[in-house]
Amino acid sequence: xxxxxxxLTLCCLLALTAGCSSSTEAPPKAKQSxxxxxxxxxxxxAETSETEEAEAAPSDQPFVLGNxxxxxxxxxxxxxDESADWQDNPVLDSEAQLRKELAEEEPPEVSVEEALKLKNxxxxxxxxxxTALGVLADADGKNVDYDQDFVRHVTGDLxxxxxxxxxxxxxFEFSDLSGLGFLSFDRHFNYFAxxxxxxxxxxxxxxLTDKMVIRDDLTWSDGKPVTAHDIEFSYRLIMxxxxxxxxxxxxxxxxxxxxxxxxxxxxxxxxxxxxxATNKPNMIFPILPKHIYEKTLPEDPSMKRSKRHRELxxxxxxxxxxxxxxxxxxxxxxVKRRExxxxxxxxxxxxKPYFKSVRVKVIEDANTALLALKKGxxxxxxxxxxxxxxxxxxxxxxxxxxKVTAIEWTNFFFQYNVESRYFADKKVRWxxxxxxxxxxxxxTICRDLYQQSQGTYHPESWMFPENAPKIVQQDLDKAEDxxxxxxxxxxxxxxxxxxxxxxxxxxxxxxxMTYTSETGIQAATLMKECLDQIGIxxxxxxxxxxxxxxxxxxxEFDMTMGGWGTSTDPDSxxxxxxxxxxxxxGQYSNEEVDRLxxxxxxxxxxxxxxxxxxxxxQILWDDQPYTWLFYRPAFYAFNKKLRGYHFSPRGPYNYSxxxxxxxxxxxxx
Length: 669
Prior knowledge:
The protein is α+β, with helices and mostly antiparallel strands.
């Protein structure tokens, strides 16, 4: 498995997870899935007609591949080799690296058989279960049952199979299963090139150039070889400006490259504009087959409208371990193991993916998903707090499953469209933040399992500020004072605040858009009730995920609920908060924040970088483009047949792109 650009999106994009609930809700699952949260992507069948988005008329603009690339005449490879003073970088087996790390940790306290009998809850049991069942497969794979299928759970539908167009957690799930990576990282975000795709990786002494030699036994699912020319072509596609081409997430970072050039079928060179701390993640972007898209793009730059592109959406040509075998919209997609990924000319050249197929089921309702888990119809899911506490301790749950919890840098919030007439004023946004009943949110809805948020970066991250913002408590008097100062008062005595805008009296009445899980609805409803007390009317609008996602991209909202997971580097937050960036849904803009993001990627000293991002954290907190609500750890249930799961701040699936260590043993209790 691989992740294309997920490492560059603070979120692995999370696009809206159900993080908590006091009764019956559907938490998301993500991996990540930035960020994202790996956010809850619920689907409402009543709104499916909205997902049939009306396409605008095609633009008459000519298609010019790579027209956003600044002119640059690259040296010859011979000239490069003479002048670069190449420094070798690690090329590693991802799972072997994880195995080495685990060998240095304390061995499991209990056997697998004992761990399978334990219930999670009593002190120490979580660690015992996680370490015992996290045991990796044998290096030679002889103890793996390769005939097994794996049934996973998501709460929102797959919107696209095109890795360049991804923007949701489920999109990234598919890209992860079907894609190939040329740069990877471990649980601690240390980068290396994976042996399954790369022969060598070198960086010039001045840090301005990276050279990779990729393997000659890589193929697309249509049988054509994967070459360095595919990488160059994909870079040029991502760096193409065209009215019809919308690339939501993967251009960030890629645009910091001066050029990506294929010198032959296997040698690819990345030229950086300058030596940045983010040069490594900037080299990660998804790859499309040149031999197909160089023919289809001139006809349809949107990659959506033409018959051929619609065919590719349903029958994508991929280069990873799995290929799409079935897709039923709003229900599931299924990928099957691709023999030509790990076999080449009759020989096994890569590790065989552990599962014959992976079925990813869309179940929006958390109660329905939990019933499916207990029946064995799905084999993993992210649990809501009350599910963790009171619905997964019975024999029906433990018959097929166990559960574990671990750290995850996932953050949930209310987001404001600062171009909205309601939320342009920082005082109003702060009034909203003071209006929230955090005690009810955290202790009742979230069962006291989540930590109240203190801003965009997680308290355990290296960039979190030393003098962190203070936790906000509900203060309705303060909220009302701020609204008065901003000019929102009840001038006509009808109980609703109003303000004269452009000569018209406007009541403070708006829609609060949220995802269709119970957690999202509960949190939004709580906010509505809080605002009722200070003369503001919020209409809670639960919205099918793909519709909500598009409305976010189009800035068609006043206030929305969402969540982000973490990337490998804090610079990826630029895509969310810098002026004019694709996932800056709320249109927030601050020149100092923009400047600091540029400064942060140029600074190579980690402590100095941390100070820069801490400043960004503080400025964002002061401006309140979001009302930050809570950080959500990982609470997962896994079928007892599964082994080898491990967690990082990105969740159980995102610690090491390029490999999945989860498997089913050939012999098991």
